[in-house]
Amino acid sequence: MRNRRINRDELIWHAVAAIPFGMVATYGQIAEWAGLPRQARQVGYALHNLPADSTVPWHRVINAKGMIAFPPGSAQYYRQRELLNSEGVLFVGQRIDMRRFRWKPTMDEAVWGVP
Predict the structure, then answer these.
(1) Backbone φ, ψ for residue 95 (5° rounding)
(2) Is residue 9 scored above 80 in pLDDT?
(3) What's the pLDDT tens digit per position in 59-90?
(4) pTM of the predicted protein model
(5) Which terminus of the chain has fewer Cβ atoms in its 10 Å neighbourhood, N or C?
(6) Contact 90, 101 (CB under 8 A)
(7) Rounded to an integer, what distance in angstroms lies between the CA atom of residue 16 and that of residue 27?
(8) CA distances from 45 to 27, 41, 94 (A)
């Protein structure tokens, strides 16, 4: 049996799945963790390609400014904000307090995932 090669989307989905409940990570962080440095845009594409029945917590990924990337006022923006609020992530205006809610994994967590 041949080993199946993991594609970029799957690497990204695996990295996003490691973000703990109530925490967020930026597109750039996820790209780094997935072994795709300087490819934050690829993270957005991968999340857009998530299967409809996926349990990957896509809503925990935000932009480098600590903001939701969807246009404010859009249905997607409100959905992501609602999901983050339900996990206790707080906003000040349209920004998340990154000092409080940005996930800073240990090396083991970043490499092996959350136990």
Answers:
(1) -110, 150
(2) yes
(3) 999 999 999 999 999 999 999 999 999 999 99
(4) 0.88
(5) N
(6) yes
(7) 9
(8) 11, 7, 23
Burial level of 99, CB count in 10 A (0-12/13-18/19+)? exposed
What is the chain's percent helix, strand, coil content, to nearest 5?
Answer: 45, 10, 45
**Eight-state DSSP code of residue 67:** B
Residues 44/62, Cβ–Cβ less than 8 Å: no
Scan for tokens 């930026």, then name that residue.
26
What tokens does 58 get? 């896509």
Residue for token digits 């790209």?
31
Q: Which CATH code is given to the segment(s) 8-112?
A: 1.10.10.10
Least confident of 56-65, 94-103, 106-115: 106-115
| Among the listed residues 23, 26, 5, the one whose alpha carbon sits nearest the alpha carbon of residue 114 | 23
> Is the pLDDT assigned to residue 48 strictly greater than 70?
yes
Amino acid identity of residue 32, one-letter, is: E
